[in-house]
Amino acid sequence: MKKATADTDCQRYLEDPEANAAHLQTCAECRAVSVALAEKSDVKSASIDINALPLAPWEGSSHRPWTLVLGITAVVVIIALALCDAAGLSPLHVAESSLTSMEAMRGLIERATASLRTASLVWQIAFGVAFLIVNGLLIVLLRRSPRGMDA
């Protein structure tokens, strides 16, 4: 019974040596095979310390220089306030004019939605179907596995 368990452990190690690396500590036969293969190959297996590798941008934000980000934000705000002062405008006036332009865009969107509501039923259904097709296509494209440069 113990031999059968050892055989299955050896088989698991041979199928995936990296995931079952602890098996080498318990099995002398597999350890001997591993040493023999390492001696025959020219490549030396070097252990990689995962914690020593730099983080990719999507892996976390622990290495981001937040003081730099906050400093740049402060500089941009100061420059914007200086430009408002040089133009003789108050920041409140600039914000109000921005809101006015956003109101114009809101009016345009309201007119477009009102025209869609008054359109015939066929056009409303066609718009709904087109909306579903485009969003379905986007979902399919986002669900695909990304391809690397060497794929």
Domain module tally: 2
User: What radius of gyration results from the CA coordinates?
Assistant: 32 Å
Mean pLDDT: 82
Number of strands: 0
List low-confidence stretches.
Answer: none
Beta-strand content: under 5%
Structural class of the secondary structure composition? Answer: mainly alpha
Number of helices: 6
What is the CA-CA span between the terminal residues? Answer: 45 Å
Order of helices and strands: HHHHHH
Shape: elongated
The largest sheet, given as strand count, sense and whether it forms a barrel, is:
none
What percent of the residues sit in helical stretches (DSSP H or I)? 55-70%
Give an account of the 3D structure.
- The protein starts with a helix and ends in an 8-residue tail after the last helix.
- It folds into two domains: 7-41, no CATH class; 65-136, no CATH class.
- It is elongated.
- The protein has helices at 2-15, 23-26, 28-40, 66-87, 91-117, 121-143.
- It has six helices and no strands.
- The chain is 68% helix and 0% strand.
Which tags fit this structure?
mainly alpha, 2 domains, elongated
In short:
This protein is an all-alpha fold and 151 residues long. It contains six helices and no strands. 68% of the residues lie in helices and 0% in strands.
